[in-house]
Design a protein that fits this description.
By secondary structure, this protein is of the alpha/beta class. It folds into 2 domains: 152 residues, Rossmann fold; 63 residues, TATA-Binding Protein. Helix content is 38%, strand content 26%.
Length: 225
């Protein structure tokens, strides 16, 4: 994996990027899903897989807060992404110049002119540009004009929130269905699979819930157990 430290004025040579933008501060289940999509698209369309991230974290820059928002260290994050097969790690210096770019300029000056992206894969709630004014609708609107494709990922967490009122994301994604029933979705620590587990005082209800969640997750992940 090649490491690139950039600012808005620096030249970037690599072309034909399949890019995801974010800080990947914990490489949680949603991040892992997006990364798999990047790798799959890159292989299928012969593009270069890339992650774009920011230093310092935008929250720290804007709030002038020294709090560490990252769950894992930068070195571990880079090692993990390298092992997954990401080819380019693009780290931007998040400063006044970058933070002042509005959403339209961010697309045209950074994504198109500087990075020459061909495909962007982001979550449905992705926001960017000054005052977080840019969203997936704007990315899609400019895609044909600027010559890139956009793939929007609906996170499993978002789907669960629509179905169940109480969601816990401390260790995977856990949905509390009622006082006697819960379901947990999490990545295995030892195998490249997603585990689904549930508990209920009603065995039949438990089986139905697991099957429903499996169908939801199968649309987004390659291996289910």
């Amino acid at each position: 994996m090649k490491l690139h430290k950039l600012n808005i004025n620096k030249t970037f040579q690599t072309k034909n990027l399949c890019l995801c933008i974010g800080n990947f501060d914990g490489i949680h289940i949603g991040h892992q899903h997006v990364i798999k999509k990047i790798l799959k698209s890159s292989q299928e369309y012969k593009m270069n897989s890339a992650i774009m991230t920011f230093t310092p974290h935008p929250k720290i820059f804007f709030k002038k807060d020294n709090k560490n928002f990252n769950i894992i260290t930068n070195n571990y994050k880079k090692k993990y992404l390298r092992e997954l097969g990401i080819e380019h790690y693009i780290e931007y210096n998040f400063n006044k110049s970058l933070s002042s770019l509005d959403a339209l300029d961010f697309i045209k000056k950074i994504l198109v002119k500087q990075l020459n992206v061909k495909k962007i894969i982001v979550g449905k709630d992705f926001r960017f540009g000054k005052d977080r004014s840019g969203d997936t609708k704007l990315l899609k609107k400019l895609s044909s004009i600027c010559g890139y494709k956009v793939q929007i990922i609906e996170h499993v967490k978002n789907n669960l929130i629509k179905k169940y009122s109480k969601i816990i994301t401390l260790d995977g994604i856990k949905a509390i269905i009622d006082e006697n029933t819960w379901i947990l979705i999490r990545k295995s620590n030892t195998e490249d699979i997603i585990r689904i587990s549930a508990e209920s005082n009603n065995e039949e209800k438990c089986k139905i819930i697991i099957n429903n969640i499996k169908e939801m997750v199968k649309e987004r992940y390659d291996k289910i157990k």
